[in-house]
């Protein structure tokens, strides 16, 4: 299996996140509760394929691979690659750099590959507004007809060393309208199935809907996987315990 990324823009040179590395330098977000919920949408024999845009340290990608599935991560800055940070030291053949607001193609054994899920965790707000349609075109080109596009987006500025790393600061309403205009529909039932357990957003940061939102989207809602059953114990665990204040305190005390 040979994976190749084709792009004329191997790094997002003009991005503030590359010029003033912050998320790309420190973030390595992961949440196995999200992974387990995502897997339930597909057959146990299905090899899930995930494309993570703005993968930072790549830990989410590594978790998917460690669980026996297939994942690729793309990052606009080469900081983590140069310093072999986090998962870049462990799965370098599955992590790549490129400007995701410019055309790119992911190939496996010389053929374009499509993914069951494309994710973008706190990424889209880092792209200039005029570059967002091209980003969504890349998502469309790499998404299976029945696939999900899952994005968490913060709607407030993020100032580092006097530079606002968030180049598109818009409301949840604006983002939903933008997605709809570009052919994506929100899957409210699928979103609620995760019970707030995402890689970023939801119960992870709890900034409030006026500051942060998670979208679970589809190009073809009628083809989206059916919402699976969820054991009551898992539902209660996700909704009330995992990442709660008490849970975080217990983990802190046990470390």
TrEMBL record:
One Pfam family matching this protein: Methyltransf_23
UniProt-listed InterPro entries: SAM-dependent_MTases_sf
Protein name, UniProt field: Methyltransferase domain-containing protein
Species classification: Bacteria, Candidatus Roizmaniibacteriota
């Amino acid at each position: 299996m040979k994976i190749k990324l084709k792009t004329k823009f191997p790094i997002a040179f003009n991005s503030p996140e590359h010029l003033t590395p912050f998320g790309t330098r420190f973030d390595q977000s992961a949440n196995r509760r999200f992974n387990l919920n995502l897997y339930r949408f597909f057959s146990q024999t299905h090899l899930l394929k995930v494309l993570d845009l703005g993968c930072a340290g790549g830990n989410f990608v590594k978790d998917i691979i460690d669980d026996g599935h297939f994942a690729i991560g793309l990052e606009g800055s080469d900081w983590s690659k140069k310093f072999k940070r986090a998962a870049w030291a462990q799965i370098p053949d599955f992590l790549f750099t490129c400007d995701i607001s410019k055309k790119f193609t992911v190939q496996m054994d010389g053929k374009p590959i499509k993914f069951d899920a494309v994710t973008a965790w706190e990424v889209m707000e880092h792209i200039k507004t005029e570059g967002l349609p091209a980003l969504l075109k890349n998502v469309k080109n790499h998404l299976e007809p029945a696939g999900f596009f899952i994005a968490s987006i913060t709607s407030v500025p993020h100032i580092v060393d006097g530079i606002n790393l968030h180049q598109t600061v818009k409301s949840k309403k604006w983002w939903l309208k933008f997605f709809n205009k570009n052919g994506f529909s929100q899957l409210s039932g699928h979103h609620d199935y995760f019970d707030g357990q995402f890689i970023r957003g939801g119960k992870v940061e709890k900034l409030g809907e006026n500051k942060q939102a998670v979208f679970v989207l589809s190009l073809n809602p009628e083809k989206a996987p059916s919402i699976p059953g969820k054991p009551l114990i898992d539902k209660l665990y996700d909704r009330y315990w995992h990442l709660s204040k008490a849970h975080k305190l217990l983990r802190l005390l046990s470390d």
